[in-house]
Amino acid sequence: MTEKIYEYKDDNNWFIGKGSFANIFSSFGEGGREQEISQLGHQLDQLIAPRYEDEFNQCVAIEVIKLQSDVRLIQFALEILNDLNNRQFRAVHHKGTVLIIEGEKLYSVYLPKTGVSLTDFFGQSETGFGDTLLIATKNEGKTKEFRKFFEKMGITVENLNDYPDLPDVAETGMTFEENARLKAETIAKLTGKMVLADDSGLKVDVLGGLPGVWSARFSGPDATDEKNNAKLLHELQMVFELKDRSAQFHCCLVVASPDKESLVVEAEWPGYIGVQPQGENGFGYDPLFLVGESGRTAAQLSSDEKNEQSHRGLAVKKLMEVFPSWLNTR
């Protein structure tokens, strides 16, 4: 069978192409630009081929005789790929970039070497785009911990203080997961945003797992951190041996988004309950929670130390392992 040859020629561009095992551009007539043209082929290969290696029957090899427009070369390559593989890719100009699109899906963006202005590209300030994660809490300390993790992924973190008109969600669940789901899924429906809720609490073995899901309100309706800690010490006042004061911080994280299955992860942090508060860095029961066998309380750890080993830190690590793939599910 005769190999099919493709050609494009105008006053400023001249390309000849054929099917190949990889996307390769080489230069026949543009002396001194061989590396630049080869890089264009490599970029096309990076933009497209790896995503469709199980679907593409063929890639494309193009010999460049004359080149003025990188975009026209990419369009020519897409036309060949479409013909060879029965696809419908197209290159669309947008604010100095080229969007590689098929149907209603955007697959890749080709950028000029000089880059483009974010404001020009998105038509708004750079803070007005990108994924936003709403943390279902008004606790700034908790928000700060989550922000350290998610900002590394380029995700803007907000909390309920940014949405004062939202109603409170009653935590009526009997488990940490039930409460976290209630908060995340309810707020996601109300706001249309991606929402992360956690239900975290302290489980003390000798108290049968209390305060558990009632950790935040252990001392009653007007509970504060100080009142909760005082009640816990009161409950344990006749438990003298440290080994009998074993406990775990438990964290359940739920990420919810409208019309999407929620993501759930859980983790625990083992330790003991001390006999008096120590440390200034934490919140909640941190001043009483002795970390493992270290003799230090959670409130005596730096933020980095705490994030590395805490129940919330461990849960977030688990979350980070599955979060990117969850974002891409429908």
Automatic annotation (TrEMBL):
HAMAP family the record matches: Non_canon_purine_NTPase
GO BP field: nucleotide metabolic process; purine nucleoside triphosphate catabolic process
Matches recorded under PANTHER family: INOSINE TRIPHOSPHATE PYROPHOSPHATASE, INOSINE TRIPHOSPHATE PYROPHOSPHATASE/HAM1 PROTEIN
Keyword Metal-binding recorded: yes
Cofactor binding annotation: Binds 1 Mg(2+) ion per subunit.
UniProt name for this protein: dITP/XTP pyrophosphatase
UniProt keyword list: Hydrolase, Magnesium, Metal-binding, Nucleotide metabolism, Nucleotide-binding
Species whose genome carries this gene: Streptococcus hillyeri
A Pfam cross-reference name: Ham1p_like
Residue sites binding Mg(2+) per the record: 199
Quaternary organization: Homodimer.
UniProt-annotated catalytic positions: 199 (proton acceptor)
UniProt catalytic activity: dITP + H2O = dIMP + diphosphate + H(+); ITP + H2O = IMP + diphosphate + H(+); XTP + H2O = XMP + diphosphate + H(+)
EC numbers for this chain: 3.6.1.66
GO MF term list: dITP diphosphatase activity; ITP diphosphatase activity; metal ion binding; nucleotide binding; ribonucleoside triphosphate phosphatase activity; XTP diphosphatase activity
